[in-house]
Amino acid sequence: MRIISGIYKSRKIVAPKNLPVRPTTDMAKESLFNIINNLYYFDAISVLDLFAGTGNISYEFASRGTENITCVDQDFGCIKFINQTSDKFEMPIQTIKSDVFKFLEKTSMQSNLIFADPPYNFSIEQFSKIPELVFSNNLLLEDGLLIIEHSKHTDLSHITNFAYSKSYGGNMFSFFEAS
Question: Which long-range contacts (CB under 8 A, 24 or more apart) does 131-136 make?
Answer without folding.
Answer: 131/159, 131/160, 131/161, 131/162, 131/176, 132/160, 133/101, 133/104, 133/105, 134/104, 134/176, 135/160, 135/161, 135/176, 135/178
